[in-house]
Write a structure and sequence with these properties.
mainly alpha, Growth Hormone, Chain: A, 2 domains
Length: 521
């Protein structure tokens, strides 16, 4: 029986051959979904130079991808439960390829945003679908953790491969060609999925929840827009205040809607499970710190250390490669070590690495920074699989798809806020520090005013486009020093957030609460 004619299954374990195909396609799907994140990150300085983009505009390059992931993941999970996960999976692959094609042909920064948004919408379809496919194929809770570990390793493999490929491609052919890779990978996955992937739906009937979807999308978009614009205009600006008020109102509407809905997009009773609540909050906080950290780190490599995309790519690959190696083991370790200690211990390692990065400067060597990135990657590898497996396994089987979508949604909300929050902190810290750095560098007042004005208006990258004659080296040195002040502020903030997430995990995921299905409702 072919995939196109196989019966729709529910809570029954798939045959062995179907299970293998499902798990392979789930891992390939999450690989495609996450491929743009770090491949784009290492080319942000090049994109900024090509279009004269400000720091806020570069934040939107990242957030244009992550925002649709956060806004539409829950809806994609419902669509998969109602209409079939295979269908949603195939649509996700098509949108990912289309988004890459649009960005590949972009002639303006806004077209890059559109391409990123399409790819992010495709990723929103893939993420909950791939986890729901694994939950369907492997109903046994304990066995499922091993396969979620493999899924997490596929995710980290994507984050590792992205910069390694993007670096040589960007330096040899130009930044836009980094978008070529996702197209054939997505199309190959599409062709294989059509033949091999069985269909599945939720074992209990669900309906689409449009009021919940609309209010969630408005809340997330308004919140991220407000934070990004606050980094440029300040929190007292009228558009920032209006955006944040809209976010609060939409969030309240979402909660009221979900409580009253007969078929909620996110059943708020899920949060009665301590394990689900803890892992969801930890996921959001961790990804805010991590994705924001990657954004700032990529700017540091490009603007301060003046590295090419190949060198920057290798540095990010160290971190993600370490996560990938540990990720598969972490799923198996859950049988012997409680998730509390894996997640809490991993986050402590991440926080230690972030605080250790406070000592770096413009001349820090590859060897000196590499061990910090490896420690950070090892810590994240310990966190990813247990965090996801605990969230999915903490609720009854028929709610596993919703739990996966909910955990991913909050994770991506954190990921969307990361570049926005840390980008705003970076700009604020650097701009406040820049005038004194220019004075220390011996720059005359007229040149100082010109540089500060350009940076205020368009971000730190604007300084490199100014024609300053003999003052250029000294000015760029001062800009680099100011950037480091802003970066140290970001690292402190990220480290504190990550440490708070570790404490949250250690307190809420108490021993004795095994990673098992908890009653909900």
């Amino acid at each position: 029986m072919t995939a196109t004619t196989s019966p729709v299954t529910t809570g029954v374990s798939a045959p062995p051959e179907r299970r293998t195909a499902t798990i392979v396609m789930a891992c390939l799907g999450v690989f495609v979904a996450y491929l743009p994140i770090t491949s784009v990150a290492v080319t942000l300085p090049a994109i900024g130079t090509a279009f004269g983009a400000s720091t806020a505009q570069l934040s939107w390059v990242q957030d244009a991808f992550v925002l649709p992931m956060a806004a539409f993941i829950l809806t994609a999970g419902v669509f998969g439960d109602v209409h079939g996960r295979r269908k949603v999976y195939l649509v996700g692959l098509c949108l990912t390829a289309l988004g890459a094609l649009v960005a590949l042909s972009a002639q303006s920064i806004s077209m890059v945003w559109i391409g990123q948004a399409l790819a992010g919408t495709g990723a929103a379809a893939l993420l909950p679908t791939t986890l729901a496919l694994i939950s369907h194929a492997v109903p046994d809770v304990r066995e499922r953790g091993k396969f979620i570990g493999i899924w997490a390793s596929a995710l980290m493999l994507s984050l590792t491969v992205g910069p390694l490929v993007a670096g040589p491609v960007a330096e040899s052919a130009g930044w836009r060609w980094i978008y070529l890779l996702p197209i054939p990978v997505a199309l190959i996955a599409l062709a294989v999925a059509v033949v091999t992937l069985p269909e599945s739906r939720a074992p209990h009937a669900r309906r689409l929840d449009w009021p919940g979807q609309i209010s969630a999308a408005v809340a997330v978009t308004a919140l991220v827009f407000g934070v990004i614009e606050a980094g440029v205009y300040g929190f007292g600006d009228a558009r920032v205040i209006v955006a944040l008020l809209i976010a609060v109102i939409a969030a309240v509407v979402f909660v009221i809607t979900e409580k009253r809905s007969a078929s909620p997009m996110l059943d708020l009773d899920l949060f009665r499970s301590r394990a689900f609540t803890a892992t969801t909050l930890v996921a959001m906080i961790t990804f805010l710190a991590l994705i924001g950290f990657i954004f700032v780190l990529s700017m540091y490599f490009g603007l301060v250390q003046q590295l090419g995309t190949i060198e920057a790519g290798w540095r990010l690959a160290l971190m993600n490669g370490a996560s990938m190696l540990v990720g598969a083991l972490a799923g198996k370790m859950m049988h012997r070590i409680h998730a509390r200690f894996l997640i809490g211990g991993g986050l402590i390692m991440v926080a230690v690495a972030q605080f250790a990065l406070l000592t770096i400067d413009a001349d820090t060597s590859f060897a000196a920074i590499s061990w910090r990135l490896v420690v950070l990657g090892l810590g994240m590898g310990l966190v990813m699989a247990p965090m996801t497996a605990t969230a999915v396994s903490a609720v009854p089987y028929h709610l596993s798809g919703m739990a996966a979508a909910g955990n991913n949604a909050f994770r991506q909300v954190g990921g969307a806020l990361g570049p926005a929050v840390l980008g705003a902190l970076l700009t604020a810290g650097a701009v406040n520090s820049l005038p004194q750095k220019l004075v220390d560098a011996g720059i005359d007042e007229p040149v100082r005013d010109r540089v500060v004005g350009a940076v205020d208006a368009e971000g730190l990258a604007a300084a490199s486009s100014l024609d300053l004659g003999a003052d250029t080296p000294a000015v760029m040195g001062a800009v680099g020093d100011a950037f480091l002040d802003g970066m140290h502020l970001c690292l402190t903030f990220s480290g504190v957030l990550t440490a708070a997430a570790a404490v949250l995990a250690l307190v809420m995921l108490r021993p004795g609460r095994a990673v098992e299905e908890q009653p909900v409702g």
